[in-house]
Specification:
12 helices, five-stranded mixed sheet, alpha/beta
């Protein structure tokens, strides 16, 4: 089946950054890193990059995937790299604490919230570097002005189930089907700290009936820290339905010949853009630039998406076992001002914690 893709009418990068780790943690005043940004078009010195020390990349992706990718990066460039995993809600306080000193342990940041990244840009906490690879990305997938962050993949959130425990005839086909009493306490979502869960709610809140959330709460869905945990419980039979699971989990399961089925509801599958940038306070600016160049290159995108099982945002990168984005009806935000509203996020956190009993 072939679906259309609903995309933003205009890209406003000032999205939800104030919502996670800023307003929510009381960091009202902008802390500006003292290190001045280097020239946006200054190319990295590879020899110098190898002398700068171990590159540190913060992210909210699957840890094993990032470890594997960084190993490929090191093999390609000779630059050692380490990863730190943190969801946006916990990453921001750490970053702000470091940035107040003008020096950061973190060099590059792979973030599931471009709004959060753009707040860093507005605070002059991101390094301006225009990689030669950025021309391969559509304007709505890059910061404005260009050079601060770029989308490295779009995280789609459909439903999933294991046909060993759920019959295809009775499996939910629409978001409304999750309200069937048979799925009471058997639907899993991520908790309110996950940017992807906020996006799921935000994109469905005006599509679903207003009483949908009250009815969903009566189902007592279960909250998880990651989609990996959701999938694990589905495969063990401990959970029947993944209410929102990252699409790449389906690809990975199929690669292992595991019995997982995916459902893209006709209302559409909410999706989250994930972006990467460099902190202005990096102690390893050359190494960080080399990382961005590699990550955004055709070779780097092929490596990353092969590892993760996701669809690249570069048109010249395709993988035979990864669904193409145009084959799925993807829901992305169109009213970015509203999407970025601290009030919206506060509304979500309060509602979602009550729905999941947290």
């Amino acid at each position: 089946m072939r679906f259309s893709v609903r995309r933003p009418t205009a890209f406003d990068p000032g999205r939800r950054g104030l919502l996670v780790g800023l307003a929510a943690t009381g960091l009202a005043a902008p802390f500006i890193a003292s290190r001045p940004a280097s020239a946006a078009d200054a190319p990295p010195d590879l020899a110098q990059a190898r002398k700068e020390g171990t590159l540190v990349v913060m992210h909210s992706d699957q840890e094993n995937d990032v470890v594997t990718f960084l190993r490929a990066f090191t093999e390609k460039t000779g630059i050692q790299a380490l990863q730190q995993r943190a969801l946006p809600g916990s990453a921001m306080p750490k970053l702000q604490a470091e940035l107040r000193t003008g020096a950061s342990e973190i060099d590059a940041y792979m973030c599931s919230d471009p709004g959060l990244m753009d707040v860093l840009r507005q605070r002059k906490q991101l390094l301006a570097y225009i990689s030669p690879e950025m021309d391969a990305y559509a304007p709505n997938l890059r910061s404005d002005p260009v050079g601060y962050w770029t989308t490295y993949f779009i995280n789609i959130g459909p439903m999933m189930y294991d046909p060993r425990y759920v019959d295809a005839a009775t499996a939910p086909k629409t978001w409304t089907d999750l309200l069937d009493p048979r799925w009471s306490q058997q639907v899993g979502f991520q908790n309110s700290s996950a940017g992807t869960q906020y996006t799921w709610w935000y994109l469905l809140k005006d599509i679903m009936p207003k009483d949908y959330w009250t009815k969903l709460a009566r189902q007592k869905p279960r909250a998880y820290a990651s989609s990996t945990q959701i999938l694990s419980d589905i495969q063990s039979g401990n959970l029947k339905i993944g209410g929102k699971v990252s699409n790449y989990q389906y690809v990975k399961a199929k690669r292992l010949n595991q019995a997982i089925e995916v459902v893209y509801p006709p209302e559409g599958a909410p999706a989250q853009t994930q972006v990467v940038g460099i902190l202005v306070a990096t102690q390893r600016p050359n190494a960080a630039k080399v990382f961005i160049d590699y990550f955004l290159s055709q070779e780097g995108q092929t490596a990353w998406n092969r590892i993760q099982g996701s669809s690249s945002t570069r048109n010249d990168v395709t993988l035979p076992d990864v669904p193409k984005l145009e084959d799925v009806k993807i829901l992305l935000p169109t009213d970015f001002k509203d999407y970025a509203s601290p009030a919206r996020h506060a509304e979500f956190v309060k509602l979602w914690n009550s729905i999941t009993g947290m």
